[in-house]
Amino acid sequence: MITIKQIQNNATVTDGSDTVTLGAGGSYTCSEPEEKLDFIFTVDTTISDVSPSDSISYYIYGFGEIDWGDGNTEYIYEDGNTIQTHKYNTDGVYDIKLSGSIWIYSFSSSSDNLKVIGIKQWGNALNDFNRSFYNCYNLVTLPPQNETLKIRRLCQNMFEGVTLPYLPKMDFLDCHVSNSSGNAKSAFNASNFDFDASYWNMSAISQMTSMFQNTSMSQANCDAILTGWTRWDSATGTVGLTLKSNVSIHMGNTDYTRGGDAEDAFNYLVNTLNWTIIFG
Fold first, then answer.
1. Integer angstrom CA distances of residue 229 from 98, 179, 204, 262
2. Which helix (H) or strand (E) holds 220?
3. What secondary structure letter does DSSP report for 269?
4. Phi/psi at 77 (nearest 5 deg)?
5. Closest C-alpha to 129, from 109, 95, 159, 99
6. What is the pLDDT of residues 74-96, one digit of tens each?
7. Which element (helix H / strand E) includes 264?
8. For a Cys staple, 78 with which of 39, 82, 115, 165, CB 3.0–4.6 Å?
């Protein structure tokens, strides 16, 4: 905990998303810095894909460190899309740890999408999850359900083509789930998607054009999203969470229940906040 005190004149302090101007004699206590945690994912080099059975190739770039899981580490200082390839002495399963400020994505014919079999820890080393696990068909394990996945920027095509064992607990921090042009496919573009996402905090979301496109969630889960994201209070007919206006979302092959809280929440989003909600 750090306290800043202004002795004379004015000072401006920025702490996360908060900006405070201090007059003479004013003080401000900054929040504790977030503990840095590695992102950890598991690969099986023996699965047939782009690289040989003793290697892994994946787009990993940014500024930080890669621990390949075999005692070898390397620092990366890459400012663009860069394929990283590592050769192991022995074929097998390895946990790869990423630390620092990192981007990864698998939206490429040059990366070993099929060798990714699990994620052990979300951590906070990744700057965004844009196409991070696109078509990673063998990704079958995720961190414990009580571990929160924090989305800081983008998550376009994040789990497209992946059959998730459960829906991660997510905290969206001022980000886009798809691009504003509406041409992007969804973060969860899979026909078997049917999870309760009502507990997500969507207050920072500015765009999610194709979020659930091509999914087939149940009507009950669709209702839960509408009432949950707004924190709809049926007794008072009011919302408990402030959401952004003019947001577009595709809800997939589903619909909401008429004549109840879900319809009330839907009408609030469409008529009050000017949301565009597409079904089918």
1. 32, 21, 11, 11
2. helix 219-230
3. I
4. -135, 65
5. 159
6. 998 877 677 899 999 999 999 99
7. helix 261-267
8. 82
d(CA 243, CA 210): 18
Residue 46's pLDDT is what? 97
**Rounded-to-integer distance, Cα 152 and Cα 68, Å:** 25
Buried b (16+ CB within 10 A) or exposed e, 125-161: bbbbbbbbbbbbebbeebbeeeeebbbbbbbbbbbbb
Q: Quick check: 61 and 102 in contact, CB under 8 A?
A: yes
Which range has the worst mean pLDDT, 64-68, 157-161, 275-279?
157-161
Q: Return d(Cα 158, Cα 153) in angstroms, integer.
A: 12
Check residue 39 and report its DSSP letter: E
Q: Is 225 helix (H, G, I), strand (E, B) or coil?
A: helix
The first and second tokens of residue 101, run together, are: 């400020």
* E-assigned strand segments in the chain: 2-5, 11-15, 18-22, 27-30, 39-44, 55-67, 73-78, 83-87, 93-105, 116-121, 148-151, 169-172, 248-250, 276-278
* Among 247, 235, 236, residue whose Cα is nearest residue 225: 247
Which pLDDT tens digit goes with each residue over 101-141? 888 876 567 789 999 999 999 988 887 777 788 888 899 89
Distance CA(144)–CA(163), nearest Å, equals 17
Three-state secondary structure call for residue 7: coil
Q: How far apart are the first and last CA of the chain?
A: 50
Q: What is the pTM of this model?
A: 0.73
Q: What is the mean pLDDT of the chain?
A: 81
Cα 243-143-114 angle, rounded to 5 deg:
105
Residues 60, 268: Cα–Cα separation, whole Å: 42
